[in-house]
Amino acid sequence: MELERGSLPKDLISEPSPSLPKDFPSELIPKNICEVEFFDLIRCTYQDGSQMTCPKEFKKFLECKRERDLKLFNALQKWEIQRVKDHNPAMQQMYKQGLQNKINRLTEAVSVMPTNFWYLHKRQRYETDIEQLQWRLFNLNKYV
């Protein structure tokens, strides 16, 4: 992505953030969730009124978001590995199977989802969730 040119609305969703499990502890979520950088970007875009604007603000937001997401992925990995290690082998296997079932359900949903424009964001979100679940399952199989 070319940061010098600024941002388009589609650029803001081109790198989806992690999907967190419902019981992921909120204290492990980074304190800076990039809201200041996001509001600076929105404010600049609103003031300029153009479709491709604010390269400096866009770059700051994107860098903040990437750093935040990396911290989230690291925290998620450590938390989940420890959480599953604390269970007996049967529960560990059941947890892993639950992740595999989610992958299968999302894969099935994507396979029957219309390919038109109206489903583009939903399709991207599902595909990203599938990748993240596969990453989580890979880590659990490797470390637990």
Automatic annotation (TrEMBL):
<protein>
    <recommendedName>
        <fullName>CHCH domain-containing protein</fullName>
    </recommendedName>
</protein>
<feature type="region of interest" description="Disordered">
    <location>
        <begin position="1"/>
        <end position="23"/>
    </location>
</feature>
